[in-house]
Design goal:
Blueprint (H helix, E strand, L loop, with lengths): L2 H4 L5 H9 L7 H9 L22 H11 L8
Length: about 80
């Protein structure tokens, strides 16, 4: 499921954290919430292939969150 589909399903507090900390490593609690909302899970390759796994969003997701936070178009290629 793409970010624009699971984003609205996140708790407001999770969305606020992701906007305020956009580009930072995502804590496992928020990763679990993203998974519960239909997004990528803890071990999904979407988070990258680092070992140990650091849950940092891909650039496209960081860009999407920034655009969304700024009320800009959020077109995802």
């Amino acid at each position: 499921m793409d970010i624009e589909q699971w984003w609205p399903r996140l708790a407001q507090s999770a969305r606020e954290w992701l906007v305020a900390n956009n580009g930072d490593e995502v804590p496992s609690e928020i990763v679990e919430e993203i998974e519960a909302a239909g997004g990528p899970g803890l071990h999904d390759s979407w988070w990258g292939d680092e070992v140990p796994k650091h849950h940092s969003m891909p650039d496209t997701a960081v860009d999407w969150i920034e655009a969304s936070a700024n009320d800009e178009p959020t077109d995802v290629p």
